[in-house]
Amino acid sequence: MMKTSSKMLFFIMTMTSTMMVLSSNDMLNMWIGLEINLMSFIPLMYENKNNFLTQSSMMYFLIQSMASMMLIIMILMNMFMYINMWMEMMNIIMLTMMMKMGMPPFHMWFPEMMSKMSWKTCIMLMTWQKVAPMYILSLIMNNNKLTMLIMMTSTITGAIMGLNHTSTQKIMAYSSINHMGWMMACASMNSKMWIMYMMMYSLMTIMLGMYMYKYNIMYTNQYNNMSMNMTEKMSVLVMMLSMGGLPPFMGFMPKWITIEYMIMSNEFMLLTIMSMSSLITLMYYLRMISSMMLIMSHSQKWMFMNKKEASTNMLYINMLMPMLIIMLNFM
């Protein structure tokens, strides 16, 4: 086990390195921030030592360092070459950021790593570790055919590949890939709006991930054996539907905004494909919780007033957030 002081140090370094990327206006400084982030996140994986963690940390290091090498080569070429190839370099930098985030076609390491790690590091990998690459991606993104193809591939891969697995960690990984496609669409239409998407997605992922951690759920069939009260079941149901992007839950709000921007940009074909893939993700979330809600619902008590349960608060947050945003828009 790692000492708490060491873990705290690496955690602060991971947070600070991402903030360094967000506050830099030079690509070289951003590269340094990404390298610090990589080297400080790897020790955080070692919560309990086993062979899987060694394998996944090596996998993470190789993929991230390969992407970093490509990034620094592009930066140096831009600094020291006299030929103007900035557009071609931008496309390669975009591909390196996709490698870092685990987006298709460079996504195979991401679900494999997720299935070998603890839930706490999984949550961090799905949320905070995506902020810095996504920020760089939003700066260099162009509305060209390559970007459209990447969005389409991400949403389709995240939806269809998630159907093949029973591991909840792999399903969450493919759901994250699907959300990355939506986030890219949001960033390409409005360069700042992806931040709101990322915040909402992170909030939903953290809440759902903490539930998985609390009950140690690794596979979908474990939902049948859970000793939950009805309130907790309802909270999990709401969070799952929210992650799938079903109205009127919180997860639909950022997708709704992205849909509006895409309609204004006349991207109807891309929007149709992304919306259909979003329905498939909703299907595998429903498949995960249908047995828990339908078969195991013996209790007639709802116990919404138990203030000690954090799950009740999570339910309220999920339910009230869309209403608050709609009210703010009308004010």
Account of the 3D structure:
- The protein is 75% helix and 0% strand.
- It is an all-alpha fold.
- The N and C termini lie far apart (52 Å).
- The relative contact order is 0.09.
- The mean pLDDT is 83.
- It catalyses: a ubiquinone + NADH + 5 H(+)(in) = a ubiquinol + NAD(+) + 4 H(+)(out).
- InterPro entries: Complex_I_Subunit_2 (IPR050175), NADH_UbQ_OxRdtase_chain2 (IPR003917), ND/Mrp_TM (IPR001750).
- One of its GO terms (molecular function) is NADH dehydrogenase (ubiquinone) activity.
- Keywords: Electron transport, Membrane, Mitochondrion, Mitochondrion inner membrane, NAD, Respiratory chain, Signal, Translocase, Transmembrane, Transmembrane helix, Transport, Ubiquinone.
